Known about the structure:
Layout: H1 3-10, H2 18-29, H3 32-55, E1 62-68, E2 83-89, E3 134-139, E4 151-157, E5 163-175, E6 179-184, H4 189-197, E7 202-205
Antiparallel strand pairs: 1-2, 3-6, 4-5, 4-7, 5-6
Amino acid sequence: MLPRTRRHLTGPPFVLPVALDRLAESWWRARPRTRLLIGAVVTSVVLLAGIAHAATAPDGPPTSVWVATRDLLPGEVIAGADTERRSWPADLVPDGALERPEGTVSATLPRGSVVTDRHLGELGIVAAVPPGRVAVAVPVDQLPALSAGARLDLVGPSPDGGGMLLAVDATVVATDGVSVWLSIDPEAAIAVSSAVAANAIAAVVLPAEG
Length: 210
Protein backbone atom coordinates (compact mmCIF):
# COMPACT_ATOMS: atom_id res chain seq x y z
CA MET A 1 0.00 0.00 0.00
CA LEU A 2 1.32 3.46 -0.89
CA PRO A 3 2.14 5.82 2.04
CA ARG A 4 -0.32 8.46 0.83
CA THR A 5 -3.13 5.91 0.58
CA ARG A 6 -2.31 4.60 4.08
CA ARG A 7 -2.53 8.14 5.49
CA HIS A 8 -5.97 8.65 3.96
CA LEU A 9 -7.25 5.36 5.35
CA THR A 10 -5.86 5.75 8.86
CA GLY A 11 -6.33 9.51 9.23
CA PRO A 12 -9.43 11.46 10.29
CA PRO A 13 -12.64 10.86 8.33
CA PHE A 14 -13.22 12.91 5.20
CA VAL A 15 -15.25 16.03 5.95
CA LEU A 16 -17.94 17.01 3.44
CA PRO A 17 -18.85 20.65 2.75
CA VAL A 18 -21.57 21.84 5.16
CA ALA A 19 -24.30 22.11 2.53
CA LEU A 20 -23.52 18.69 1.07
CA ASP A 21 -23.29 17.18 4.57
CA ARG A 22 -26.74 18.52 5.49
CA LEU A 23 -28.18 17.25 2.21
CA ALA A 24 -26.74 13.78 2.86
CA GLU A 25 -28.20 13.72 6.38
CA SER A 26 -31.61 14.81 5.10
CA TRP A 27 -31.46 12.10 2.41
CA TRP A 28 -30.77 9.30 4.87
CA ARG A 29 -33.34 10.58 7.38
CA ALA A 30 -36.03 10.48 4.71
CA ARG A 31 -38.32 7.48 4.47
CA PRO A 32 -37.40 4.79 1.88
CA ARG A 33 -40.55 5.58 -0.09
CA THR A 34 -39.62 9.27 -0.20
CA ARG A 35 -36.12 8.46 -1.43
CA LEU A 36 -37.60 6.19 -4.10
CA LEU A 37 -39.96 8.93 -5.24
CA ILE A 38 -37.17 11.49 -5.40
CA GLY A 39 -34.97 9.08 -7.35
CA ALA A 40 -37.79 8.45 -9.83
CA VAL A 41 -38.35 12.17 -10.31
CA VAL A 42 -34.63 12.83 -10.89
CA THR A 43 -34.43 9.95 -13.38
CA SER A 44 -37.48 11.26 -15.26
CA VAL A 45 -36.00 14.74 -15.44
CA VAL A 46 -32.74 13.39 -16.87
CA LEU A 47 -34.60 11.30 -19.46
CA LEU A 48 -36.82 14.20 -20.49
CA ALA A 49 -33.78 16.44 -20.80
CA GLY A 50 -32.13 13.87 -23.07
CA ILE A 51 -35.25 13.57 -25.23
CA ALA A 52 -35.57 17.35 -25.45
CA HIS A 53 -31.92 17.63 -26.48
CA ALA A 54 -32.39 15.02 -29.22
CA ALA A 55 -35.56 16.72 -30.45
CA THR A 56 -33.80 20.07 -30.73
CA ALA A 57 -30.64 18.68 -32.34
CA PRO A 58 -29.61 20.49 -35.55
CA ASP A 59 -30.57 17.52 -37.74
CA GLY A 60 -33.76 16.62 -35.90
CA PRO A 61 -34.69 13.74 -33.58
CA PRO A 62 -33.42 10.23 -34.35
CA THR A 63 -35.57 7.96 -36.50
CA SER A 64 -35.20 4.30 -37.44
CA VAL A 65 -34.16 3.43 -41.01
CA TRP A 66 -32.77 0.45 -42.92
CA VAL A 67 -29.27 0.78 -44.42
CA ALA A 68 -27.25 -1.49 -46.69
CA THR A 69 -24.54 -3.56 -44.98
CA ARG A 70 -22.68 -4.07 -48.27
CA ASP A 71 -22.64 -2.65 -51.78
CA LEU A 72 -25.83 -3.86 -53.51
CA LEU A 73 -25.97 -3.91 -57.31
CA PRO A 74 -28.92 -3.91 -59.72
CA GLY A 75 -30.41 -7.36 -60.21
CA GLU A 76 -29.55 -8.65 -56.73
CA VAL A 77 -32.35 -9.84 -54.46
CA ILE A 78 -32.06 -8.42 -50.93
CA ALA A 79 -31.38 -11.04 -48.26
CA GLY A 80 -31.79 -10.67 -44.51
CA ALA A 81 -28.14 -9.85 -43.81
CA ASP A 82 -27.92 -7.25 -46.61
CA THR A 83 -29.60 -4.54 -44.50
CA GLU A 84 -29.77 -3.55 -40.86
CA ARG A 85 -31.79 -1.09 -38.80
CA ARG A 86 -30.04 2.06 -37.56
CA SER A 87 -30.99 5.42 -36.05
CA TRP A 88 -30.54 8.48 -38.26
CA PRO A 89 -31.33 12.17 -37.65
CA ALA A 90 -34.78 12.76 -39.12
CA ASP A 91 -33.68 15.65 -41.35
CA LEU A 92 -31.01 13.49 -42.99
CA VAL A 93 -33.33 10.61 -43.91
CA PRO A 94 -34.00 10.66 -47.69
CA ASP A 95 -37.54 10.61 -49.06
CA GLY A 96 -38.98 7.18 -49.71
CA ALA A 97 -37.14 5.37 -46.90
CA LEU A 98 -38.66 1.91 -46.55
CA GLU A 99 -40.17 0.38 -43.44
CA ARG A 100 -38.91 -3.06 -44.49
CA PRO A 101 -36.72 -3.47 -47.60
CA GLU A 102 -37.62 -6.48 -49.73
CA GLY A 103 -37.31 -7.32 -53.40
CA THR A 104 -34.85 -6.78 -56.24
CA VAL A 105 -32.27 -4.00 -56.36
CA SER A 106 -32.88 -1.73 -59.35
CA ALA A 107 -30.31 1.02 -58.62
CA THR A 108 -26.84 0.73 -57.13
CA LEU A 109 -27.01 1.00 -53.32
CA PRO A 110 -23.61 1.65 -51.66
CA ARG A 111 -22.87 0.24 -48.22
CA GLY A 112 -24.20 2.44 -45.42
CA SER A 113 -26.88 4.10 -47.59
CA VAL A 114 -30.52 4.28 -46.55
CA VAL A 115 -32.71 1.92 -48.58
CA THR A 116 -35.48 3.82 -50.38
CA ASP A 117 -38.22 2.93 -52.83
CA ARG A 118 -35.99 4.24 -55.62
CA HIS A 119 -33.46 1.45 -55.03
CA LEU A 120 -35.86 -1.48 -55.36
CA GLY A 121 -38.02 -2.77 -58.19
CA GLU A 122 -39.23 -6.08 -59.50
CA LEU A 123 -37.78 -5.36 -62.95
CA GLY A 124 -34.23 -5.88 -61.69
CA ILE A 125 -31.58 -4.89 -64.22
CA VAL A 126 -34.15 -3.55 -66.65
CA ALA A 127 -35.17 -0.93 -64.08
CA ALA A 128 -31.59 0.37 -63.99
CA VAL A 129 -31.46 1.02 -67.75
CA PRO A 130 -32.23 4.67 -68.65
CA PRO A 131 -35.04 5.40 -71.12
CA GLY A 132 -33.90 5.14 -74.73
CA ARG A 133 -31.16 2.61 -73.91
CA VAL A 134 -30.96 -1.18 -73.87
CA ALA A 135 -28.93 -3.63 -71.80
CA VAL A 136 -26.52 -6.24 -73.15
CA ALA A 137 -24.60 -8.86 -71.19
CA VAL A 138 -20.87 -9.38 -71.74
CA PRO A 139 -19.06 -12.29 -70.04
CA VAL A 140 -16.76 -11.04 -67.30
CA ASP A 141 -13.72 -12.69 -68.91
CA GLN A 142 -14.11 -10.48 -72.02
CA LEU A 143 -13.83 -7.19 -70.10
CA PRO A 144 -11.53 -5.72 -67.45
CA ALA A 145 -12.72 -5.68 -63.84
CA LEU A 146 -15.49 -3.10 -63.70
CA SER A 147 -18.04 -1.94 -61.16
CA ALA A 148 -21.51 -0.45 -61.56
CA GLY A 149 -21.36 3.07 -62.94
CA ALA A 150 -18.15 2.60 -64.96
CA ARG A 151 -18.20 4.13 -68.44
CA LEU A 152 -16.50 2.68 -71.53
CA ASP A 153 -16.36 2.63 -75.30
CA LEU A 154 -16.62 -0.79 -76.95
CA VAL A 155 -14.38 -1.77 -79.88
CA GLY A 156 -14.68 -4.79 -82.18
CA PRO A 157 -13.28 -6.11 -85.48
CA SER A 158 -14.08 -4.33 -88.72
CA PRO A 159 -14.74 -6.11 -92.05
CA ASP A 160 -11.29 -5.12 -93.36
CA GLY A 161 -9.56 -6.86 -90.42
CA GLY A 162 -8.97 -3.73 -88.39
CA GLY A 163 -10.93 -2.38 -85.48
CA MET A 164 -14.06 -0.27 -85.28
CA LEU A 165 -16.01 1.55 -82.59
CA LEU A 166 -19.13 -0.45 -81.71
CA ALA A 167 -20.65 1.58 -78.86
CA VAL A 168 -19.90 4.94 -77.29
CA ASP A 169 -20.25 5.73 -73.60
CA ALA A 170 -21.62 2.36 -72.51
CA THR A 171 -22.39 2.24 -68.78
CA VAL A 172 -22.10 -0.70 -66.41
CA VAL A 173 -25.46 -1.14 -64.68
CA ALA A 174 -24.74 -4.44 -62.91
CA THR A 175 -22.26 -7.28 -62.49
CA ASP A 176 -23.26 -10.69 -61.19
CA GLY A 177 -19.96 -12.56 -61.28
CA VAL A 178 -20.80 -14.15 -64.64
CA SER A 179 -21.79 -11.22 -66.84
CA VAL A 180 -21.28 -7.49 -66.96
CA TRP A 181 -24.52 -5.76 -67.94
CA LEU A 182 -23.99 -2.67 -70.09
CA SER A 183 -26.42 0.09 -70.96
CA ILE A 184 -25.90 1.07 -74.63
CA ASP A 185 -27.70 2.77 -77.50
CA PRO A 186 -30.17 0.42 -79.25
CA GLU A 187 -28.42 0.95 -82.62
CA ALA A 188 -25.25 -0.62 -81.22
CA ALA A 189 -26.90 -3.71 -79.71
CA ILE A 190 -26.51 -6.02 -82.75
CA ALA A 191 -22.86 -5.13 -83.37
CA VAL A 192 -21.96 -5.52 -79.69
CA SER A 193 -23.81 -8.82 -79.37
CA SER A 194 -22.07 -10.18 -82.49
CA ALA A 195 -18.65 -9.18 -81.14
CA VAL A 196 -19.45 -10.81 -77.81
CA ALA A 197 -20.51 -14.03 -79.55
CA ALA A 198 -17.22 -14.05 -81.46
CA ASN A 199 -15.26 -13.29 -78.29
CA ALA A 200 -13.82 -10.31 -80.12
CA ILE A 201 -14.70 -7.27 -78.06
CA ALA A 202 -12.44 -4.76 -76.31
CA ALA A 203 -13.18 -1.94 -73.89
CA VAL A 204 -11.75 1.54 -73.57
CA VAL A 205 -12.51 2.67 -70.01
CA LEU A 206 -13.51 6.32 -69.78
CA PRO A 207 -12.88 8.68 -66.86
CA ALA A 208 -15.65 9.07 -64.33
CA GLU A 209 -18.06 11.92 -64.92
CA GLY A 210 -17.57 14.75 -62.59
